[in-house]
Design brief:
By secondary structure, this protein is α+β, with helices and mostly antiparallel strands. It is built from 7 helices and 10 strands. The strands form 3 sheets. The chain has a 6-stranded antiparallel sheet with strand order 6-2-3-4-5-9. It has a two-stranded antiparallel ribbon with strand order 1-10. A two-stranded antiparallel ribbon has the order 7-8.
Length: 223
């Protein structure tokens, strides 16, 4: 009976941590926002799936310039029909080796449950993402938008001042994987990175949101 009780207590503790992490805001107090006209606001999107979240950044002259280095790697941010830059961060083994659930293997899962190096995934979209299922939209001012861009740019690992594209690592013809800063584990993974990026842009989230569902819930609760 003791192993069963231990497992039950562990599950209850994890459930309490998940609930508490979603309903306790970070930062604790909402920042005081100065009034801003709608013309100064930029819309960003959060794309959520069963286990992973991405951020979609609108592509215009400013963001195309900020991420112009991606063109040379095969991510066509300068293409006139590209409307969104889609950014995701995650564990190297699981992210690279599991493009679909059919590709699931034991070793990447083990690495994701322990600790792994991290990668950034960059892609573009030329259609209206906002109308797709599993998408949440947030409007931020220019200053907050610039902080988001800086957060994403600062997540790239660099060598001699240049980002490092991983050879042959892509899901399709227009996306690429890059070496990233930081380490991935199951407690602080892709969704907590997304939350951190959003907080850089002034969007509050829960204190600890390791799941897409807890992150999206907290985003709706506090914004």
């Amino acid at each position: 009976m003791r192993p069963a009780r231990f497992a039950l207590r562990a599950m209850l503790l994890l459930l309490l941590m998940l609930v508490g992490g979603a309903v306790i805001p970070r930062p604790l107090l909402a920042p005081v926002e100065a009034s801003s006209g709608s013309a100064d606001l930029r819309r960003i999107l959060v794309l959520s799936g069963p286990i992973h979240t991405d951020i979609a950044i609108p592509l215009d002259d400013t963001t195309r310039s900020a991420f112009s280095f991606l063109d040379a790697t095969g991510v066509p941010v300068g293409h006139p029909q590209a409307r969104w830059l889609i950014v995701g961060w995650g564990g190297r083994a699981f992210y690279l080796e599991t493009p679909t659930w059919a590709d699931l293997k034991p070793l990447p899962v083990l690495r994701a449950l322990t600790i792994d190096s991290s990668v950034l995934h960059m892609d573009v979209a030329g259609y209206d993402l906002a109308s797709q299922p599993g998408v949440a939209a947030f409007d931020v001012d220019q200053k907050s938008f610039a902080k988001l861009i800086a957060f994403v740019a600062g997540s790239f690992a660099t060598e001699a001042g240049a980002v490092v594209a991983i050879p042959g690592a892509a899901y399709g013809p227009h996306d690429r994987f890059f070496e990233a800063r930081g380490f991935f584990n199951v407690l602080f993974g892709c969704n907590t990175w997304t939350a951190g990026a959003l907080r850089a842009a002034g969007i509050r989230s829960g204190l600890w949101t390791p799941l897409p569902q807890s992150l999206v819930f907290s985003l709706r609760l506090f914004n």
